[in-house]
UniProtKB/TrEMBL annotation:
It comes from Pseudoxanthomonas mexicana. PROSITE patterns: UPP_SYNTHASE (PS01066). Its EC number is 2.5.1.31. Coiled coil: none annotated. Its cofactor is Mg(2+). HAMAP family: ISPT. Belongs to the UPP synthase family. PANTHER family: DEHYDRODOLICHYL DIPHOSPHATE SYNTHASE 2, DEHYDRODOLICHYL DIPHOSPHATE SYNTHASE FAMILY MEMBER. Catalyzes the sequential condensation of isopentenyl diphosphate (IPP) with (2E,6E)-farnesyl diphosphate (E,E-FPP) to yield (2Z,6Z,10Z,14Z,18Z,22Z,26Z,30Z,34E,38E)-undecaprenyl diphosphate (di-trans,octa-cis-UPP). UPP is the precursor of glycosyl carrier lipid in the biosynthesis of bacterial cell wall polysaccharide components such as peptidoglycan and lipopolysaccharide. The gene is uppS. Keywords: Cell shape, Cell wall biogenesis/degradation, Magnesium, Metal-binding, Peptidoglycan synthesis, Transferase. This is Ditrans,polycis-undecaprenyl-diphosphate synthase ((2E,6E)-farnesyl-diphosphate specific). Mg(2+) binds at residues 18, 205. InterPro entries: UPP_synth-like, UPP_synth-like_CS, UPP_synth-like_sf. Homodimer.
Amino acid sequence: MSPAASPPVPRHLAVIMDGNGRWAERRRRPRVIGHRAGARAVNVCIDFCLERGIGALTLFAFSSENWGRPEEEVGALMKLFLNALDREVEELHRRQVRVRFIGDRARFSADIRARMDAAEALTAGNTRLHLVIAASYGGRQDIAFAARALATEVAAGRLRPEDIDEAALGAHVALADLPPPDLFIRTGGDHRISNFLLWQLAYTELWFTDVLWPDLDATLLQRALDDFARRERRFGLTSAQVAGGAIEDSPA
Ligand code: IPE
Ligand code: IPE
Ligand code: MG
């Protein structure tokens, strides 16, 4: 199957929300203040997606590696996460947002896990925006878990090793049911993926900005979308092939 052409707006936007700590440090405030301000920016981003008709939004909230931060910061982030779940989920549901979490949930406390489960159950039928929160998530871990799932199938005699291909592995990584991200945005000035969706970003358009996450606004997001609309996605083909319609318009 040929890949899908760029839609006018991304079907799926993936975001690394970076720069909370520096935002606070520049104001000589503790880092947690930056995380609190960052939580407000999440709403700016969700509102933008709802207004523009973007179907899926994946936000990197906490990486597998972030568990290694000072205990005090991890504790403050967990508290914020818990509060956000208590405060925001009803409103998201009212706005027909489906909420889902990817990552290693077992590492969270029981009260956070219970709220994640409840949020997913409450919003499961919503279709306006698919909001994915990547928490305790790592791209390498995601691929390793997919490999383990395939190995289990082989051990049980349900799959032959020679049947393992991109489609088989791709079916077991996170977000297999969504189109891959069309556009990736990272705030905070660093130009790296930091173990976000390694498999899923293979042909995603990457967009970086120095703006720190808590300073996010709709104008900045619109700039990213405008840049995205100007790009030619070739998926390994030539420009002439793309112009000749070799890339489908239908969703991948
Ligand atoms: C992103 O902001 C939020 C998390 C990783 C949880 P940072 O906390 O990484 O902020 P900087 O990069 O140190 O400024
Ligand atoms: C990536 O940011 C993870 C999140 C935004 C949740 P980091 O701040 O952890 O990434 P590095 O350490 O700069 O690569
Ligand atoms: Mg950072």
